[in-house]
């Protein structure tokens, strides 16, 4: 393994899912739903397979039906207008979109300012691209993890090429506010930075939180690469259909990298996701409401079991502090948890450069059936 990748090893998600299988534990580690997405969308995939749509290489940028549906979604939802032919690119999940964007946009040695804790593929993709990550740590403040705008400003140097943002944020569940996003946008414009924004949890925001796309802020449309995923929005993580929307020059750049990573992927599924994006608003409302209920079940259960719970405003993850349980090392806690309680969780420290800062936090996924969440909570309470 080369020096760029040596520090990363096996992803924590694979490690912890294997542990869940080996111990027969309830897996609240890796974020994948235990209920598949809509039946009619599965049927749409079957129809595409049978009708011979997408069984051979689809077009490099993605099938036109899907690119049109992505553009329509961005317009309907956010008032953002993208040309399906030049400003939309279909990728092999958001993971490839992130990798291709960083490979395309970074020169070796360029600095990337990323919110910490960060989704694990960010660090690896920055490294593959020869970039340097510069974390800005979200810190607990009155029940949620918040961004310190002064720290963010101080992290930008003459070597900074881009800001890598994620809202709603995995693993903390933070949804950046309008004021926070406006400050990020102002900074990007002032320092002439590109922004890659991972908005895969855009439809999972709860209570009075609102997802606002960074691309909609003044001066951002031309400098922002926005990433979405059908894995998250429609509960088909195995289909690996993601996308990028951005200005033509940025989409061309990302596509230049993407063509040598996978070239294309997920042919028949692209047609099905095009139909999914056109589902009525009630689909998105039901999806969000059902995840909110699950959030509440798991949060209550974790609180009853003695964890400090950071109530997530978005995503399907809840971050907890284990110190009230007399624990301080999330790694050790998560490695022991399957034996102790028959539950698998993720130590947030893996999402930090500053492992100390992340040590006491542990993430649980709540994209599971309510009875599964209740059983997990009961096991944790009895532990
Ligand atoms: N970004 C974030 C913040 C995620 O949580 C995930 C999935 N865990 C991804 C990207 C990857 O998405 P996909 O499965 O579409 O590659
Ligand atoms: N995004 C998922 C999570 O955060 C994991 C996806 C993966 O295993 N790469 O749990």
From TrEMBL:
<dbReference type="Pfam" id="PF00155">
    <property type="entry name" value="Aminotran_1_2"/>
</dbReference>
<feature type="domain" description="Aminotransferase class I/classII large">
    <location>
        <begin position="26"/>
        <end position="380"/>
    </location>
</feature>
<dbReference type="InterPro" id="IPR051326">
    <property type="entry name" value="Kynurenine-oxoglutarate_AT"/>
</dbReference>
<dbReference type="GO" id="GO:0009016">
    <property type="term" value="F:succinyldiaminopimelate transaminase activity"/>
</dbReference>
<dbReference type="GO" id="GO:0005737">
    <property type="term" value="C:cytoplasm"/>
</dbReference>
<dbReference type="InterPro" id="IPR004839">
    <property type="entry name" value="Aminotransferase_I/II_large"/>
</dbReference>
<dbReference type="GO" id="GO:0008652">
    <property type="term" value="P:amino acid biosynthetic process"/>
</dbReference>
<dbReference type="GO" id="GO:0030170">
    <property type="term" value="F:pyridoxal phosphate binding"/>
</dbReference>
<keyword id="KW-0663">Pyridoxal phosphate</keyword>
<dbReference type="InterPro" id="IPR015421">
    <property type="entry name" value="PyrdxlP-dep_Trfase_major"/>
</dbReference>
<dbReference type="InterPro" id="IPR015422">
    <property type="entry name" value="PyrdxlP-dep_Trfase_small"/>
</dbReference>
<keyword id="KW-0808">Transferase</keyword>
<comment type="similarity">
    <text>Belongs to the class-III pyridoxal-phosphate-dependent aminotransferase family.</text>
</comment>
<keyword id="KW-0963">Cytoplasm</keyword>
<comment type="subunit">
    <text>Homodimer.</text>
</comment>
<comment type="function">
    <text>Involved in the lysine biosynthetic pathways. It catalyzes the transfer of an amino group from L-glutamate to N-succinyl-2-l-amino-6-oxoheptanedioate (N-succinyl-2-l-amino-6-ketopimelate) in a PLP-dependent reaction, yielding as products N-succinyl-l-2,6-diaminoheptanedioate (N-succinyl-diaminopimelate) and 2-oxoglutarate.</text>
</comment>
<keyword id="KW-0032">Aminotransferase</keyword>
<dbReference type="GO" id="GO:0016212">
    <property type="term" value="F:kynurenine-oxoglutarate transaminase activity"/>
</dbReference>
<comment type="pathway">
    <text>Amino-acid biosynthesis; L-lysine biosynthesis via DAP pathway; LL-2,6-diaminopimelate from (S)-tetrahydrodipicolinate (succinylase route): step 2/3.</text>
</comment>
<protein>
    <recommendedName>
        <fullName>Probable N-succinyldiaminopimelate aminotransferase DapC</fullName>
        <ecNumber>2.6.1.17</ecNumber>
    </recommendedName>
</protein>
<keyword id="KW-0028">Amino-acid biosynthesis</keyword>
<dbReference type="InterPro" id="IPR015424">
    <property type="entry name" value="PyrdxlP-dep_Trfase"/>
</dbReference>
